[in-house]
Design brief:
Blueprint: E1 15-16, E2 19-20, H1 26-66, E3 75-80, E4 83-89, E5 105-110, H2 116-124, E6 134-142, H3 152-176, E7 179-186, H4 192-206, E8 212-217, E9 220-222, H5 224-238, E10 245-248, E11 250-251, E12 279-280, E13 284-288, H6 289-295, H7 308-319, E14 323-326, E15 343-344, E16 347-348, E17 352-354, H8 359-370
Parallel strand pairs: 5-6, 5-8, 6-7, 10-14
Antiparallel strand pairs: 1-2, 3-4, 4-7, 8-13, 9-17, 10-13, 11-12, 15-16
Helix pairs in contact: 2-8, 4-7
Main location: Golgi
Enzyme class: transferase
Subcellular location: Golgi apparatus membrane
């Protein structure tokens, strides 16, 4: 048998059939595996970061569309049968809570963004006579996303007006802290029912302890001491039979207007009946807190439309078994007074009028309301 000569430093494992074979350095192999592992780990970390970033952005942009329940305290959604609209409200300041625990009456005032003089008139007249336990909030929606323009100059002017309006609203809120801003709902007549639902959702979230809720428009004048008297002497007794009640001027025998050109047009697709159920005249009415709580679970069962008073105090009230109490002697249509106003225990019944358009108008009508004499 022929002997095989091994070179110095080699071993029999490096030879096969008399030929030297290439050996693998264990240290070099370990280094290669370690380098590949390092690259893979870095890639995995980068992919994880990108995935996290994507999910974060995705949740911010689309969670309000795909999720009907929100974890964040200030996120809500309009949820009528025919409309789902996510929106956001500004959270109340911790140093200035939305409603103290002692809140008795929450007044929610429907107002347009540009109604500066009306809000000023309200604050300088009847709100100055608010009784303890009263909280007032103005409902403010977003400026329209579409603006009718005739030329570029007109467009620039309108944009400047909207910018100024936004700044004035910011200053007004800083001074008074009585706005509920609805971010995601446009301020127009067609969205009145959205605004009112949002106002009620705000009440349920941030002021559930209030015993009474009043709805008014920004041209309304209310004698708050008289209202407080009637709440204690009449409304409180009436809800002993049914906790869920509306109090105001009941409108009967009114049907939908089918003329598409009319401001109050309602199509048959929205409301099929020839007449509406009884509902409250919407310039001013009062609801027990139980009436609002009973109504909210039925919102997604009805088709929403901009006749908000018909919708909430008529259609939804019937679904929720909310009772309506007629007090037209207190909540008037217009700003006229009778020659001989009725009273009880020396207090005039007439409590709310409407039709003011500026500070002078509020001052004159409120003076007239306060000066009513009992026989």
């Amino acid at each position: 048998m022929k002997a095989t000569n091994y070179s110095k430093g080699s071993s029999p494992r490096c030879w096969k059939n008399g030929k030297r074979i290439k050996s693998t350095n264990p240290l070099r192999l370990y280094g290669s595996v370690r380098f590949l592992s390092y690259i893979l780990i870095r890639l995995l970390l980068i992919l994880t970061f990108l995935l996290f970033l994507y999910l974060l952005i995705f949740s911010k942009l689309f969670s309000s569309v795909f999720h009907k329940r929100y974890n964040k305290q200030n996120e809500f959604a309009i949820n009528f049968k025919n409309a789902y609209i996510p929106y956001v409200v500004d959270l109340p300041d911790n140093l200035n809570p939305a409603c103290p625990a002692s809140t008795k009456l929450l007044i929610l005032i429907m107002t347009r963004r540009d109604s500066f003089s009306n809000r000023d008139g309200i604050r300088k007249t009847w709100l100055k006579d608010a009784v303890p336990g009263t909280v007032t909030k103005f409902i403010i929606a977003d400026s329209p996303s579409k603006i009718e323009i005739t030329d570029n100059k007109d467009a620039a002017q309108k944009m400047e007006e909207l910018k100024k309006e936004k700044q004035l609203l910011k200053v007004e809120q800083m001074q008074n802290k009585d706005f509920i801003f609805l971010h995601g709902i446009e301020d127009n007549y067609a969205n009145l029912h959205f605004k009112w639902l949002a106002a009620l959702q705000w009440q349920q979230a941030f002021c559930p302890q209030t015993k009474w809720i009043m709805k008014t428009d920004d041209d309304t004048i209310v004698h708050l001491p008289r209202l407080d008297n009637w709440i204690d002497k009449k409304f409180t007794k009436e809800i002993e039979k049914n906790k869920a009640m509306y109090f105001g001027w009941i409108i009967n025998g009114v049907g939908p207007i089918r003329d598409p050109k009319h401001k109050w047009y309602v199509s048959e697709n929205v409301y099929k009946g020839n007449s509406y159920p009884p509902y409250m005249q919407g310039a001013s009415y009062v609801a027990s807190s139980q009436a609002i709580t009973a109504t909210m679970p039925h919102i997604n069962k009805v088709i929403g439309f901009n006749m908000d008073d018909v919708l909430f105090t008529g259609i939804l009230a019937d679904l929720a078994n909310v009772t309506r109490a007629d007090h037209k002697e207190m909540f008037r249509v217009g700003n006229g007074l009778n020659k001989d106003e009725k009273c009880e225990d020396g207090i005039p019944y007439v409590t709310a009028l409407y039709g003011a358009g500026n500070l002078e108008g509020f001052q004159n009508i409120y003076k007239k309301l306060k000066d009513v004499k009992c026989p």
